Amino acid sequence: MTLIAAPSIAIQYSEAETISALAALAQPHRLHAFRALVVAGHDGLTPGTLAEGMGVAPSALSFHLKELVNAGLVTQERQGRFLVYRAAFDRMDALLSYLTENCCQGEACLAESRSPCPS
């Protein structure tokens, strides 16, 4: 289990939670929805706006959002008659930290002089 410290919250990400999060993202509609919520930032999106932007039926999107919520990657908040979904940035950061915790044995993974894209 890895301890990831955020400015005000420490999140423990276990191997089981990592597998759950990656499994949730391993489906095209869920990955697209999660990425759209990341782009939307802290304002989030309503299911209708998200479904329209993705070209997915709202009923199908509801199922996918539930899976992302269950994996802890997305939060849901009721605002009046509407639900607003947001990417759980702390959980996303914890997942990325867990995956890269021992990257390159603590060394920089890319040499400074090396360009990430071939010329």
What does this structure look like?
The protein has 119 residues and is α+β, with helices and mostly antiparallel strands. It has helices at residues 15-25, 28-40, 47-54, 58-70, 89-100, and strands spanning 2-5, 10-13, 74-79, 82-87. It is built from five helices and four strands. Strand 1 and strand 2 (10-13) form a beta hairpin. Helix 2 (28-40) packs across helix 4 and helix 3 crosses helix 4. The model is unreliable at 1-8 and 113-119 (pLDDT under 50).
Features:
two-stranded antiparallel sheet; 5 helices; alpha+beta; disordered C terminus; disordered N terminus; 119 residues; 4 strands; Arc Repressor Mutant, subunit A; 17% strand
Biggest sheet strand order reads 1-2
Per DSSP E runs of 2 or more residues, the count of β-strands stands at 4
Classify the oligomer.
single chain
Rounded radius of gyration (Å): 17 Å
- The level 1 CATH classification is Mainly Alpha
Number of helices in the DSSP assignment:
5
Shape summary: elongated
Element layout with pairings:
Layout: E1 2-5, E2 10-13, H1 15-25, H2 28-40, H3 47-54, H4 58-70, E3 74-79, E4 82-87, H5 89-100
Antiparallel strand pairs: 1-2, 3-4
Helix pairs in contact: 2-4, 3-4
Structure summarized in a few sentences:
The chain is of the alpha+beta class and 119 residues long. It has a single domain (2-101), classed as Orthogonal Bundle (Arc Repressor Mutant, subunit A), CATH 1.10.10. It has five helices and four strands.
